[in-house]
């Protein structure tokens, strides 16, 4: 009787290659971006809406609101801030409840993947889409409405930290507010009205100082108003700072409020985020 010996290579178990944290985050980020781009509604509403609003409002209103400052310049800065809020706060507040309702979050929690990787993937998606959306808005505004880009490194630096703090605060708040939606369908009903109200009271569509004083005070409690104000310091002349409620762009206060909202948003996320629906327990 002849015994056939199998090669050691055939009998040895094939080692499983485990991805490191960095590779996991990048893979999750690519997955989130792919899912976003596959949703036509998300792409059109999140990226297309700010561009459409700029095309409509900037074409209709071309008057000056201050010496050397046209309404178009003012409105575009507000729409950049709005676009960043939509891709972070509004997009996450709507889509996370959908994933929770479909059991996607429950399956994530049951895998060996660290839970923070899921959120890191969301952050990568928000940053990537936010950069693309902002670049598109700036390109359209420069090409069609003669928007002047920042001419100094200092203004570009301000543009960077205002956008970073604003997106961080809105991302954390979007994750937190996603827990208010009981079902996938209710996510949009919870988040969209909040986003629209914030746009109107934060001086996106209307000159902020023309709003009622009580409305200005309410808007000052939330990040969008300060994002708009910080971006006005980037794209509008320094002289326009005198038109602000505080008599200047108050960049120190902008940084303080946005930083405070990052802390508040993180605390709300830790206290409220749910991986499963109430019916799942």
Automatic annotation (TrEMBL):
GO biological process, one term: response to antibiotic
Lineage: superkingdom: Bacteria
Membrane topology: Multi-pass membrane protein
Keyword Transmembrane helix tagged: yes
Pfam families, per database record: ABC2_membrane
Keyword 4Fe-4S found: no
Record keywords: Antibiotic resistance, Cell membrane, Membrane, Transmembrane, Transmembrane helix, Transport
Residue ranges constituting the ABC transmembrane type-2 domain according to the UniProt record: 41-276
Annotated family: Belongs to the ABC-2 integral membrane protein family.
Name of the protein: Transport permease protein
Source organism of the structure: Micromonospora globispora
């Amino acid at each position: 009787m002849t015994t056939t010996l199998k090669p050691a290579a055939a009998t040895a178990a094939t080692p499983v290659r485990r991805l490191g944290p960095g590779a996991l985050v990048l893979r999750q980020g690519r997955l989130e971006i792919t899912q976003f781009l596959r949703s036509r509604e998300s792409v059109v509403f999140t990226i297309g809406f700010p561009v459409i609003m700029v095309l409509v409002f900037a074409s209709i209103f071309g008057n000056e609101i201050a010496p050397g400052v046209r309404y178009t310049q003012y409105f575009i800065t507000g729409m950049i801030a709005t676009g960043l809020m939509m891709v972070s706060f509004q997009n996450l507040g709507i889509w996370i409840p959908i994933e929770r309702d479909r059991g996607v979050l429950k399956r994530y929690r049951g895998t060996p993947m660290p839970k923070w990787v899921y959120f890191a993937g969301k952050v990568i998606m928000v940053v990537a889409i936010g950069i693309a959306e902002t670049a598109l808005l700036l390109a359209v505004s420069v090409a069609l409405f003669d928007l002047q880009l920042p001419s100094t490194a200092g203004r570009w630096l301000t543009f960077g930290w205002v956008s970073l703090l604003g997106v961080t605060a809105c991302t954390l708040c979007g994750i937190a507010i996603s827990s208010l939606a009981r079902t996938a369908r209710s996510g949009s009903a919870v988040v969209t009205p909040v986003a629209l109200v914030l746009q109107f009271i934060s001086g996106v569509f209307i000159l902020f100082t023309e709003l009622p004083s009580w409305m200005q005070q309410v808007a000052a409690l939330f990040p969008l108003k300060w994002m708009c104000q910080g971006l006005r310091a980037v794209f509008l002349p320094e002289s326009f700072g005198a038109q602000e409620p505080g008599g200047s762009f108050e960049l120190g206060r902008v940084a303080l409020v946005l930083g405070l909202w990052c802390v508040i948003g993180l605390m709300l996320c830790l206290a409220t985020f749910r991986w499963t629906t109430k019916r799942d327990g």
